[in-house]
Amino acid sequence: MLLANHHKPGWPFYLGWVVFNFLAIVAAWFIAWALISLITQIVGDTIQVAGQSRITEDFLLMYVLFPVIGLVAGFLQYLLLRRYLPRLTGWIPATFLGWLMPFITGYFIVTVLGFDNDTFSLTLGLLLIGATVAVPQWWLLRQRVRYAFWWILAGGLGWG
Predict the structure, then answer these.
(1) CA 15 to each of CA 22, 56, 75: distance values in angstroms, whole numbers, following the listed order
(2) Could you give the residue ranges of the DSSP H alpha helices within 44-85?
(3) Model's pTM, two decimal places?
């Protein structure tokens, strides 16, 4: 890697990366449920979507959870990365945008490719989601890290 301060990350960095991403998902889950509870208090337990009644929590969960994961994960990842890539402005917004990408990927997977609900389709879908989450982050890394394109593959394999 071509890191800005020429220090290669060691095992504490990688362990921290895994732990922080796990904590980001757990924290985002609680934050998302708190936000959905507030929304439910305002709009009620059910909402109308395309003429059908839906349970508010069930319908809104992914629309709230994914952006919150993007913000929390982006912040925690930035805390780790700033030592190795100083002045990495835009990491938090890039991660946030990356976590919005599964909405586009999911639509593509379900409607265009027409995947069934089997193990292969689920694995391929998760691989595509992981790769698309990594694309905005790669956009920032490509100027500062040699072979940054591996970031997309690593993201996809990590999810798949």
Answers:
(1) 11, 37, 17
(2) 56-81
(3) 0.82
pLDDT tens string 7-47: 778 889 889 999 999 999 999 999 999 999 999 999 888 88
Cα separation, 90 vs 104, in Å, equals 21
Token code pair at residue 160: 């798949």
Residue 80 and residue 128: Cα distance in Å, rounded? 25
Helix (H) or strand (E) segment spanning residue 53: strand 52-55
> What would the two tokens of residue 25 be?
């998902």
Half-sphere exposure of 66 (CA within 13 A, CB side): 16
Burial letters 45-82, b for 16+ CB under 10 A, else e:
eeeeeeeeeeebbeebeeebbbbbbbbbbbbbbbebbe
Gyration radius from the chain CA atoms: 18
pLDDT at res. 118: 73
Residue 127 confidence (pLDDT): 84
